[in-house]
Write a structure and sequence with these properties.
- 47% of the residues lie in helices and 6% in strands.
- It has six helices and three strands.
- It starts with 7 loop residues before the first helix and ends in a 36-residue tail after the last helix.
């Protein structure tokens, strides 16, 4: 049955993601977020003001649903319509970007760099000197007197 021929009562029982899945299956072509959401609003006969207030939530729901894939051109499609090789390439590309950002320098590079201390001895956030602790005394429980 075509999604456009479904009764509004049937559509209201479905989530926006399920309706999106039906739209993409029927159209057999990727669509952008706005086009998909406008189709849902039209099918459910919702006011146009819903578009502006709920488009962000709709985008987030598509992003978190594993049935959908956001293509390079900004359109959404069903993940099942794409081969695993294409999906793997997208994952590999994003993994390469992350590795470049988090690259750990070699030991030689670390030794070549001079570490500059921006703090004087007194200004260090953690001062390891024992001078501040010289007046402290450790007491046993027996020595401790609690005044009531």
């Amino acid at each position: 049955m075509s999604i456009s021929k479904m009764k509004i009562e049937e559509l209201e029982l479905l989530s926006n993601k399920d309706i999106t899945k039906l739209i993409l299956e029927e159209s057999k072509k990727p669509m952008n977020t706005a086009t998909l959401f406008k189709k849902i609003i039209k099918l459910l006969k919702l006011p146009d003001s819903i578009f502006e207030t709920k488009i962000g939530d709709y985008y987030t729901s598509l992003s978190t649903d594993k049935r959908f894939i956001l293509l390079d051109d900004g359109t959404w499609d069903l993940k099942s319509n794409h081969t695993s090789d294409k999906l793997k390439n997208q994952v590999d590309i994003s993994d390469d970007d992350e590795e470049d950002e988090d690259e750990i320098p070699d030991e030689d590079e670390i030794q070549d760099e001079e570490v500059e201390d921006d703090y004087s001895d007194e200004d260090t956030p953690f001062n390891d000197s024992t001078e501040d602790l010289k007046d402290l005394v450790v007491l046993d429980e027996d020595e401790l007197e609690i005044e009531e």
